[in-house]
């Protein structure tokens, strides 16, 4: 593991303190990070929660704080950003490294083994890399555009997760079929074992079932760590799949 905790240093202090009345500190999970920090306990951590609960805000801020391009991509391509370009939380949070993380942070080559994959931009990014004449070390070279979105995506994931580093993924399941999600569980699990640290926002009960992963549920309550089968999303899926009509009769007139 590379990052053991995130926190907001001295959030209570005077004029330089954070504004709790303003976004993003109005998000309960972000307010809790400001109060108590958030520990990472396992190589693979899932952030689970409803739309708007703050998953992307947290993952993006971590990418910014680690100098990974928040539009998605590798640390290495990224010029050092002006602090003014960062989001409020990206500027405010501090990543507490493990001993290994401190070693990575001090070494450009090691630090560049980091990646931020966001669902919305992944496809553009695949196109950019595939159509580019530049050979970017560390990126796959075959033309991914000729493959389906899902296959291209799996290739990206397999390539980038192959070496130890910090990987921030925002809803990586959006392009994936059920079977591909299962494959991805295998990838995440193996990557975690091989020294990668993955922090992944997801709505997928399949991904969240990755053995040995830590599940952090964000929501109105702030932050909690339920077991997989106590997750709201798991409960909804189980009940929906058992009797879809129970949900749908509230949505559509029969
Ligand atoms: N730049 C921004 N300024 C103000 N509010 C924002 C900004 N970005 C996101 N939000 C709001 O913050 C909340 C959390 O958003 P987000 O982190 O994207 O949630 P999630 O990824 O869990 O769906 C939402 O209510 C969203 O509308
Ligand atoms: Mg999001």
TrEMBL record:
Membrane topology annotation: Peripheral membrane protein
GO biological process, one term: double-strand break repair
GO molecular function: ATP hydrolysis activity
Domain of life: Bacteria
Occurrences of domain AAA+ ATPase (ranges): 41-221
GO terms for cellular component: plasma membrane
Gene3D superfamilies for the chain: P-loop containing nucleotide triphosphate hydrolases
CDD domains: ABC_ATPase
Cellular localization per UniProt: Cell membrane
UniProt keyword Transport, yes or no: yes
Main location: membrane
InterPro entries reported in the protein's UniProt record: AAA+_ATPase, P-loop_NTPase, Rad50/SbcC_AAA, Siderophore_ABC-ATPase
Alphabetized UniProt keyword annotations: Cell membrane, Ion transport, Iron, Iron transport, Membrane, Transport
Alphabetized PANTHER family for the sequence: IRON(3+)-HYDROXAMATE IMPORT ATP-BINDING PROTEIN FHUC
UniProt-recorded name of the protein: Putative ATPase
Organism of this sequence: Nocardiopsis mwathae
């Amino acid at each position: 593991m590379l990052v053991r905790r995130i926190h907001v240093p001295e959030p209570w202090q005077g004029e330089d303190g954070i504004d709790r009345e303003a976004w993003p500190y109005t998000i309960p999970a972000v307010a809790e990070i400001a109060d108590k920090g958030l520990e990472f306990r396992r190589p693979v951590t899932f952030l689970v929660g409803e739309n708007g609960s703050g998953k992307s805000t947290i993952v993006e801020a971590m990418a910014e704080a680690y100098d990974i391009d928040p539009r998605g991509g590798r640390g290495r391509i990224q010029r050092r950003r002006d602090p003014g370009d960062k989001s409020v939380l990206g500027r405010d949070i501090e990543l507490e490294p493990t001993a290994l993380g401190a070693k990575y942070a001090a070494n450009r080559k090691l630090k560049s083994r980091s990646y931020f994959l966001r669902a919305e931009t992944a496809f553009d990014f695949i196109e950019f890399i595939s159509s580019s004449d530049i050979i970017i070390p560390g990126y796959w070279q075959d033309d991914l555009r000729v493959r389906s979105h899902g296959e291209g995506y799996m290739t990206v994931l397999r390539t980038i997760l192959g070496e130890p580093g910090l990987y921030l993924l925002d809803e990586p399941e959006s392009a994936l079929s059920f079977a591909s999600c299962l494959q991805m569980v295998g990838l995440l699990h193996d990557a975690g074992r091989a020294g990668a640290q993955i922090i992944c926002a997801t709505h997928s009960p399949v991904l969240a079932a990755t053995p040995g992963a830590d599940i952090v549920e964000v929501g109105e309550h702030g932050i909690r760590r339920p077991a997989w089968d106590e997750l709201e999303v798991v409960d909804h899926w189980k009940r929906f799949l058992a009797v879809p009509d129970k949900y749908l009769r509230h949505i559509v007139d029969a």
